[in-house]
Amino acid sequence: MTETSHATDGASAADGASGDGTEPPPTPSSAPPPPPSGPRKLRSLIIGSVIALALAAFLFIGLGTSSGPGPASAPVVATGDQAPTFTLASVTGSSPVNLDALGRDHHHPVVLNFFASWCPPCQKESPLLARTAHAEQARGSTVRFIGVDVGEEPAQAIPFLRQTGISYPVGSDVDYKVTSAVYGLNAQPNTFFIDATGHVVGHVIGAVSPTQLDQWLHRLAGSPG
Fold first, then answer.
1. Could you tell me the pTM of the whole model?
2. SS3 content of the chain, % helix, strand, coil (to 5)
């Protein structure tokens, strides 16, 4: 009996609300919010552009390598492969740089480094290679260091060699004919460790660390000729 009374009172109240000419409150709309106004839209575009640029910079730096234009790449020379020989003009104008003549023809293991003076990781790595090559030579090691300067004229490379202390043979690969077309590389630095028989036993992509270099030199020094 009480519940029926409450229902009747509620109906009367509703009738009174409609009778005095007032409208019931509108139902909340489910329509999507309007697009951002001009300044808000511009601000969103700017924020999106900044994020995209930051991501691109992160990916570039994170790779640790610097690439350059060149011919279509061959497959990258793999560990266990015979290191393809090559002959390049010397950056400094001395005798041509031939991999086999400096390496396996005389049963010498080789540290073969591809670099460029405009490559930031190469700028960090090259002094380490130069110091290590001097130390190996001073102690009578059979390991030979060979450099390949990639994608620049010798006039650009010579000041870099002087600055970093590189005195081992360096070939000039202006047109990427060895770097890309033979070794399959499209970025620098890259270092191949080649044993006394001319086979690739290791490959480091990016700047080689002192620990890595030391480990590979120990392995190369013990490779049979």
1. 0.70
2. 40, 15, 40
